[in-house]
Amino acid sequence: MIRSDCRTRRGLNLIADRWTMLVITALHQDTKRFSQLHAQIDGISKKMLTQTLRDLERNGLVKRVMYPVVPPIVEYSLTPLGQTLIGPIGALRDWSEQYIEEVERMRAEYDQRDRNSLPEEIIALVQQRADKP
User: Which pLDDT tens digit goes with each residue over 41-97?
Assistant: First the structure.
């Protein structure tokens, strides 16, 4: 049984959303400002980037440093704990690079099969009903 409070699920809850792994990957090599992260991660809104960074900081995975200048400068970097996710995320990236096209092909075949089989199923049901006395 995979319990709702097991360590694996708790760990996956930290990173298994749409943006977290992308933010961690973007911070892998360098400290970045918010605007740099926003420009680097295609499709993320400023609101979602802010929320993701706050969550990562709250969980000890990202360090936020604000410099008291005008205008304020805020930089983000991975903490040592956040750095430990680079390997597992890299493994998922490598898997995706190798297999995602196959997954997408299989999905398209499945979707096409479902579309093609529906009319056949309907015809068979109609025939069964017509054959009943």
Answer: 999 999 999 999 999 999 999 999 999 999 999 999 999 999 999 999 999 999 999
Stated pTM of the model:
0.80
Please report, for the chain, the start and end positions of each structural domain, with discontinuous segments joined by +.
Answer: 1-84, 85-133
Residue with tokens 């096209």: 101
What tokens were used for 121?
A: 């199923």
Tell me: the pLDDT tens digits for 64-74? 999 999 999 99
Of 3.30.540.10, 3.40.80.10, 1.10.10.10, 1.10.3660.10, which CATH number belongs to 1-84?
1.10.10.10
